[in-house]
Structures are given as C-alpha cells and as structure tokens.
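Support request from a user on the community tier.

User writes: "When I paste my structure tokens into the form, the page sometimes reloads and wipes my input. The last time it worked, I copied everything first. Here is what I submitted, just in case something in the input itself triggers the reload:"
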C-alpha cells in the first residue's frame, strides 16, 4: 500500500472519529441535562415526558424516508450536512421558545433532523471499513469517550452557571456537529470515498423485498430485543440505585465503568468481529443480557454491580457491532442507508420506545424485579440470533431473490 493511500485512509479515520465525537457531544449533553433545562423552564413532569417521547415516534416516519432518499440520490454526505444544519437551527430556535407548546414544537423539528444523523453516519463510516480496511470500533469509541466527557463536564458547568447553560452547551455541540460533517471527504475525491458509487438506482421494490426477507426480519428481532432490554436501566437505573442507598458518586462511577467496558469492546472490534461474526456477536450480547438483568433484578451488593456493569460492553457494544457489520455484509452498499434507517427505526424507535413505555408500569409494580422482563428480552434475542446463524451464510440478501 502506497504512503498516499495510507495517509488518505488515516485522514478518513480521523474525520469519522471526529464525527462520532461531535454526535456524542450532543448526546452527552441532551440525554443527561435537557430535562434539567426543561424543569428550569417550568415544564411539568408529564410535559417533560411528552417532550422526550415525541422523537421516538418521529423517528418511525422520518428516519426510513430520509435514509431511503440519501441512498436513492447517492448523497449521504450532503444529506448529513443538511441534517446537521437543521439540528443546529432548531437548537438556536430553542433560545426563543416561551412555553410548553413552542418547546414541544421545536423539539419535534429537532427530532426530524437529529434522528437520521446516526444511521447515515454509520453508513459513511462503514464505507471506510469496507473499502479501506479500517476498524469501525476504533472510530466509534471516540463517541463513547466524548459522551463521558460531556456528561461529567456538563454537570460541573451546570453546577457553576445554572441550568440555563444547557442550551449553550447544546449550541456548542451543534456547531461541532456541523463542522464535523463539513470535514468529511467529498465523494470521489478520496481513496476512501463517502457514500455509494453504484450506478443502479435504489428502488422501493427492493426495499420492500428486504422487509419481506425472513433473514433480515430475524436480524431485526435479534438486534432490537437485546437493545430494548436496556429500557428499565436507562429509565430507572439511577433512581433505583439511589433508592437502594448508593451514593451519587458511586452511581456516576457505575455508569463510567459501563461505558468504559463499551469502549474496550470497540477498541478490539476488528479482532472480535473477525473471530465471532455478526450473528454470534448478537447472540453473545443476548446471553450477557440474561445474566446481567437477572442478577440486577436481585439487587446484588455494590461489588457485584460493578461486575455486572462491565457486561455493558457486551449487552450494548457487542450487539451494536454485530448489527452494524451484519448490515454491511448482508445488504448491498447502495441500500446501506435505508437498512441502517430501518434498523434504527425498529430498534431505537418501536422496540425501545415500547419497552420504555412498558418499563414505567413494570417498575411501578415490581421495582427492581422489572429487570426480569429485560432478561426475557435477552432470551428472545438469543433465540432469534440462533435462528439467524442457521439461516444466513454470509450472502447479500437482495442478491438472493429466492430466499424462503
């Protein structure tokens, strides 16, 4: 390999890493602290719940449509830039919102742009993996590192400047996202190019064929259920630990250990994917979920909790790697954006949204024992993964029209 090609591949990896860092700068600010800002603006608990749940429903409609359009016009980079600018404009508009209605409406527009950013970013990154032999996990881990920095640093800043600082933090993150998308290489001007280059147009009939594919549906079920199994943890994990007498400092450390294990898995992702393959990785994630959530439901001592938190690298990290690499291998490249959008819609939209809605009822009725239901989702993921392993032999799905 020539020095010029190696330099271009390194440049692509740096730009993709910067993109993930910018994305999770937004996530690391929005997820922990947006509710703090909403409460400061006087919204009630029920109104805050509505503001947070709305993007889950917006994703169902807009993410597949945007991803399909990006595939159809072969414009992944341009679409991502448009989405970043739209997200930034919505953040700016929040400075002028006055009440629940204007905040809710602005949030809906933000969700229209924001929810498609991650799927298209995955498509672009996997372009480098496929064409340049790059390591996906070593680019993606910069997002996890940034999430830790944003969530921990944001708390310090808010304690010093007050809840009004949240929007300024989001504004800075939005500017970083715009800069990172513009920093991506132009299509056709780099050895590792952004977006697809096939001459065939993306056809709606092929997308429907993908949705009718039993193999793809098995994959969606396996990946979506193991990710949805985090619903009780994401929604009530911190609250449950606090009610159990665990200090705020220890809770923060527990979260850090979980994200740290995720980073470790991403750092070794190349070897892990080559050794296990995508379906086995999802199956391993499901097995880890059964162990993690069953043990968590029993309210174990703090030392055991730290060990269980280390399984996050499997329940989330391995599942995510398996899903991304399955789509890369099983779906032709010119449909990669559409497939990523569909997976994001099902896994992070319908399944996670439904699980989060159910988790409120489960936790209210059973407290920590609600985690047993999450272990059940892990078991369902294992069964679907095993069926996927028997069915899929590594071939592109849309090239196999006689699948049955």
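"...and here is what came back when it finally went through:"
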């Amino acid at each position: 390999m020539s020095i010029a090609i190696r330099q271009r591949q390194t440049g692509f990896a740096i730009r993709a890493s910067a993109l993930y860092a910018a994305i999770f700068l937004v996530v690391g600010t929005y997820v922990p602290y947006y509710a703090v800002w909403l409460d400061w603006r006087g919204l009630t608990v029920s109104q805050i719940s509505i503001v947070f749940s709305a993007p889950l429903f917006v994703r169902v409609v807009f993410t597949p449509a945007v991803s399909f359009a990006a595939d159809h016009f072969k414009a992944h980079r341009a679409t991502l830039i448009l989405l970043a600018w739209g997200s930034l404009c919505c953040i700016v508009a929040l400075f002028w919102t006055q009440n629940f209605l204007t905040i809710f409406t602005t949030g809906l527009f933000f969700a229209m742009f924001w929810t498609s950013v991650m799927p298209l970013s995955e498509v672009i990154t996997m372009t480098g993996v496929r064409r340049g032999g790059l390591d996906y996990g070593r680019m993606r881990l910069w997002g996890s590192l940034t999430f830790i920095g944003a969530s921990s640093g944001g708390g310090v800043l808010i304690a010093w400047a007050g809840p009004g600082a949240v929007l300024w933090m989001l504004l800075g993150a939005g500017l970083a996202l715009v800069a990172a998308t513009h920093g991506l290489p132009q299509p056709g001007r780099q050895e590792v190019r952004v977006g697809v280059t096939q001459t065939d147009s993306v056809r709606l009939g092929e997308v429907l064929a993908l949705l009718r594919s039993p193999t793809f549906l098995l994959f969606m079920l396996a990946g979506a259920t193991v990710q949805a199994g985090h619903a009780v943890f994401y929604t009530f994990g911190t609250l449950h630990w606090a009610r159990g007498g665990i200090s705020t400092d220890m809770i923060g450390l527990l979260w850090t250990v979980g994200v740290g294990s995720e980073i470790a898995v991403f750092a070794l992702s190349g070897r892990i994917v080559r050794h296990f393959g995508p379906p086995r990785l999802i199956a391993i994630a499901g097995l880890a979920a059964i162990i993690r959530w069953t043990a968590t439901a029993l309210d174990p001592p703090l030392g055991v909790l730290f060990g269980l938190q280390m399984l996050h690298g499997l329940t989330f990290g391995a599942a995510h790697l398996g899903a991304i690499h399955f789509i890369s291998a099983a779906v032709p490249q010119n449909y990669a954006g559409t497939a990523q959008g569909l997976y994001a819609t099902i896994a992070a939209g319908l399944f996670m949204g439904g699980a989060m809605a159910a988790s409120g009822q489960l936790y209210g009725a059973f407290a920590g024992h609600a985690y047993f239901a999450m272990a059940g989702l892990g078991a369902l993921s294992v069964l679907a993964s095993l069926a996927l392993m028997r069915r899929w032999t590594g071939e592109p799905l849309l090239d196999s029209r006689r699948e049955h």
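Agent notes: The reload is a front-end session timeout and is unrelated to the input. The chain is about 80% helix and 0% strand. The first helix runs from residue 3 to 40. Escalated to web team.
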